[in-house]
């Protein structure tokens, strides 16, 4: 299993006493379907009294659990926005018991720019938690979710894919946690999402992640990596659409039964799963996603960019497993993740 995660969100007391400037234009706690915005004041050259308007839908019917669903934490990942736009339009309050908070474009400035990070402050939202109410735009968004929305939720789903730089086997994922009860609840929710693959996920860079903040609050948390390349496919969107409704059924919010398909369990037990480039160059994958590989097998090459007649640098699998992720663009830089090899658990 992957390494335990125990980061605890801890805004210092002085910051925690400050009010976040974001306000919702709709009620968060009234029955019915409400479409509106999270309004974040943002003074800029072309609008002195402007605001960043983040679309939000709240669907509620009586008492019951609350689910918080987000997409486009990174703005170049599209399965989440499509699936959550569809859910916001089609979910009938009469079908549910409880509340669903839907934010299709979590990092709205990045989403509008089609970029991983915000064009306003160049901050990666998924490394900005717990945020600050007096910080940049991205830090204010993180703080609002940390102190206002996440505490109200029982179940949190953050839908990711590989964006422009990675491509993944479509999987739902959780992390190894210190609390075995919380861990079991997260795994059960991941399995209910029912992506073609389910991953015990390891992070190379987890400081400031939304995941850690939500998990440290004791919530049931599921994330995904559903594809990549800076676009989406009919298949990966269908996985996301099925998954969000499955999670609502699993949580007891939506009536009905789970729609289940076969799912392969995977694990990323240590850093040997990752293969990183040690040179700039032209990327040549030698296997495709889903292929089974063996320790020492050559799985990728990086060719020089500036001359012919020079052999490529070869990269080899560091463990037996499934080829689960790969660099997406044709050119790579030193330090880029070329590939991920994950263990098949069952």
Described by strand count, sense and barrel closure, the largest sheet is: 15 strands, mixed
The overall pLDDT average reads 94
Rounded to the nearest angstrom, the distance between the terminal CA atoms is: 13 Å
Counting structural domains, the number is 2
| Helical fraction | 10-25%
What's the total helix number?
A: 7
- Structural class call reads alpha+beta
**CATH topology descriptor of the largest domain:** Aminopeptidase
DSSP E strands, number: 19
The name of the CATH superfamily of the largest domain reads: Zn peptidases
Give me the strand/helix succession. Answer: HEEEEHEHHEEEHEHEHEEEEEEEEE
In the CATH classification, which architecture of the largest domain applies? Answer: 3-Layer(aba) Sandwich
- Please state the CA-atom Rg, rounded to the nearest Å: 20 Å
